[in-house]
Amino acid sequence: MTRAVVFSEDLNGFKNAASLAYSIANEVYGVGYNDVKYTDKLYLIDRTEEDSIADFISSINANLYVFGNSKKDKIIAAQVAGKRKIGYIPDIISVEVSEGKKVIAERVAYSGLAISKLECELPCVVTVSKSFGEVKERNTQIERVNLKESKIKVIESKKATSSADLANAQIIVSVGRGLGSKDNVALAEELAKILGGAVGGSRPVVTELGWLPEDRQIGLSGIKVRPKLYIALGISGQPQHLVGIKDSKIIVAVNTDKNAPIVDNADYVIIGDAVEFLKTMIERLKAK
Amino acid sequence: MNVVAGFKVVLDDTLIKVVNGQLDFNVPLKVSNYDKNAVEEAVELKEKYGGTAIGVTVGIDDRKSIKDMLAMGLDEVRVVKGNYFDALSTAEAIIEATKDVKTDLYIFAEQTTDGNTSSVPAMLASLLDLPLLSYVKSLRIDGRKVIAERSLGLNSETLEAELPAVISVTGEINKPRVPTVRQVLEASKKPIKYIEFSSQPKVKIVELNPYVVNRKRVIIEGNMKEAVDKLITYLKEDGVL
């Protein structure tokens, strides 16, 4: 196969997409805001709006379009597929090219219950949901481009308030409705601090109850995490939450309901009150 | 103001189980979770600004789900039946099904619970060359402009675009209403139109396999102090503490 185009708004996503692209294509073009040297050619762009970027990327002739996996990356990717009227497979976890003309890729579907294997004739657009290895630095030819104006006007842009890096956290103390009240979140924060971890939460806790800021939401419509230890406190374990924690090494669940779905999806389960657990756990760890 | 709301009938993901190493898809149907938020938003906009709120659904044809959405306040529903549509052919089917409507706003959920691709709104916007506002958690209309607040995780933005436009909404945007008995009864009189559309999907499903991570499922008994001590021992043995 000949050419692939790579885009991601973040550097790790870009490198990962480039790594996958080189495993398939002979020639890889990058598109980005920053001057990085991981592709044969790099189009340095001057705008950040999704439609402007998608317009430009779809004007590049290629067999494969590879994107990172942020929400923004995926919006652009789907727009490229729409503009070119070609197939789109987001969140791939494996990929192969068959007879040089078809992509066969796997992705997680049905809120994390299934892995679907999909087939798409080239050209095709994919986004990458797992690490596809390292990429080496290259002698990149850089070309600056001015993108077309966007149909969207950005009136205001605010950075999120909290700085918890859940996606890369090794230990996560996660809270659900069963924690009882917002005040009890302080106990979860205390435990996370002792363990050197971060606090996250289920969707209801973030969106309905407002106990935690939006960038702490774990699950399908939030962040997917992969810690070595995930402690789920008062979280019942709906599929939309479970899909976000599936890659955790060890899952601990504390819940009063022994029939909650989280119980079947955890390594260790304590049937009991999450607040009592937090107090006891903090006391025990402090004593050591 | 004419609003088109997309909704998808899906298998209830909370009931899909793995039986003998196979996915058991013999489960009830439902309207995909956040699609109700899209329908609610369309109905609220219609109530506020007048015009029509039309629902469109592609794929599984389920009378009950369609009636539920009509009961929420849609004026009519357009159905494109078919066994399998990929995201691109879904977007094409929606365009075909609503080509006679002078649409000001297309509203969808940020994603459905089956495919989770979040791509139909983006594809529709591209095919129609319309502005796309995605992951919207609140919106207002100002003349021929739509102003929307969205959150992409690390930052939140206020965006503005000219109508017509395509919007995808998150679950926070509203609380889907529970229809009254009268609304349910009225729903059965509202029109449901079937539109023929077929297209060759670009993406085909080759296999669907269960995604199972085997967990230890150790239930730790005893009072809380004993349970916590046991847990700490286990976690140390596993090398995660």
Describe the structure.
The complex is a heterodimer of chains A (288) and B (241). Chain A has 288 residues and is an alpha/beta fold. Chain A has 2 domains: 143 residues, Rossmann fold (3-Layer(aba) Sandwich), CATH 3.40.50.620; 122 residues, TPP-binding domain (Rossmann fold, 3-Layer(aba) Sandwich), CATH 3.40.50.1220. Helices cover 27% and strands 31% of the residues of chain A. In chain A, a hairpin with a 4-residue loop joins strand 6 and strand 7. In chain A, helix 2 crosses helix 3 and helix 4 packs parallel to helix 8. The longest helix of chain A has 14 residues. The model of chain A has no long low-confidence stretch (mean pLDDT 94). Chain B is of the alpha/beta class and 241 residues long. Chain B has one domain: HUPs (Rossmann fold, 3-Layer(aba) Sandwich), CATH 3.40.50. In chain B, strands 11-10-9-12-8-1-6-7-13 form a 9-stranded mixed beta sheet, with helices on both faces. Chain B has a two-stranded antiparallel ribbon with strand order 2-5. In chain B, strand 9 and strand 10 form a beta hairpin. The interface between A and B is large, with 86 and 79 residues. Strand 10 of chain A pairs antiparallel with strand 11 of chain B, so a sheet runs across the interface.
**Roughly what is the average pLDDT of chain B, rounded to an integer?**
95
Structural class of chain B: alpha/beta
Strand proportion of chain B, as a percent range, falls in 25-35%
Which sequence of SSEs, written as H and E, runs from N to C of chain B?
Answer: EEEEEHEHEHEHEEEEHEEEH
| Dominant shape of chain B | globular
Q: How many DSSP H or I helices of chain B?
A: 6
**CATH class call of the largest domain in chain A:** Alpha Beta
| Radius of gyration of chain B, CA atoms, in whole angstroms | 21 Å
How are the strands of the biggest sheet of chain B laid out side by side? Answer: 11-10-9-12-8-1-6-7-13
How much of the sequence lies in strands of chain A comes to 25-35%
Oligomer: heterodimer
Query: What name does the CATH topology of chain B carry?
Result: Rossmann fold
Q: What is the domain tally of chain A?
A: 2
Looking at CATH, the homologous superfamily of chain B is HUPs
Q: What portion of residues of chain A is helical?
A: 25-40%
